[in-house]
Amino acid sequence: MKIAIIGRGNVATHLGKALHSHADVAIVNPHTLEGLPLEAEACLICVSDNAIADVAKALHATGFNGIVAHTSGSTPMEALGLFEHRGVFYPLQTFSRDVEIDYTSIPFFIEGDSEPTAEALSGIAALVSPTVHRADSDARKQLHIASVMACNFTNHLYTLADSLLREKGYDISVLLPLIGETVGKLRKTTPAKAQTGPAARRDTKTINAHLEALADSGRMKEIYGLLTDSIIAISDNTQNDKETHNRQ
């Protein structure tokens, strides 16, 4: 199978590596489409969301008539409406160019304009990973929002934590065992049930002490307060659900 990958960024780089030993892969310049094999069975557009429409338009002008799919989590499939055979090939993972990834652990979410298209894209994903799902645009948008919250937002909190630690001569490395244990719990229970800390146990004395210590830390105090309120609200709902279940 010949597969064209349009892009030079992190996603294109990693998908190229992942598929290289399973298919004839051509990496295509997204600005010029130099190197595009018109005979390829599928073309994966791996560019920023803002660039998908322009790349799709240029690709359509070449006369390419294979399957065309983008790799965006939040862009609807119909962004590729120019093509007869179109779909979405969404790998749910964070990619950094120089960080090695176990590609077999990546879940892929597939959408197609028809069942044959979806089957073909699922087959390409199966070359890389045993975990392949179907997801329409609405489901994929929800997956992307959840990913931003679980990955990007969490990493930002790591950045804030690292900043606090560096004020006292430490860094994020001292928290890695704690972070590892927290993530490990999610293999055994739900995030809500795994929640610990002063907000979960309603330790207002500690919460107030933390807020006071963050008084001169700008938005960090606001973020701490918002997340504390959210944890308390979710903990209240979880407790109410548990009490309701016990009464039934």
Quick overview of this protein structure:
This protein is α/β, with parallel strands linked by helices and 248 residues long. The chain has 8 helices and 7 strands; from the N terminus they run E-H-E-E-H-E-E-E-H-E-H-H-H-H-H.
Structural class label:
alpha/beta
State the share of residues found in helices, binned by percent: 40-55%
CATH topology of the largest domain: Rossmann fold
- Under CATH at level 1, the class of the largest domain stands as Alpha Beta
In whole angstroms, the N-to-C terminal distance is 57 Å
CATH homologous superfamily heading of the largest domain = NAD(P)-binding Rossmann-like Domain
Walkthrough of the structure:
By secondary structure, the protein is α/β, with parallel strands linked by helices. It folds into 2 domains: 2-135, NAD(P)-binding Rossmann-like Domain (Rossmann fold, 3-Layer(aba) Sandwich), CATH 3.40.50; 140-247, N-(1-d-carboxylethyl)-l-norvaline Dehydrogenase, domain 2 (Orthogonal Bundle). Helix content is 47%, strand content 13%. It has helices spanning 10-20, 52-61, 115-126, 137-166, 176-185, 191-194, 204-213, 219-247; strands spanning 2-6, 24-28, 42-45, 67-70, 86-91, 108-112, 132-134. Strands 2-1-3-4-5-6-7 form a 7-stranded mixed sheet, sandwiched between helices. The longest helix has 30 residues, at 137-166. The protein is elongated, with a radius of gyration of 23 Å. The termini are far apart.
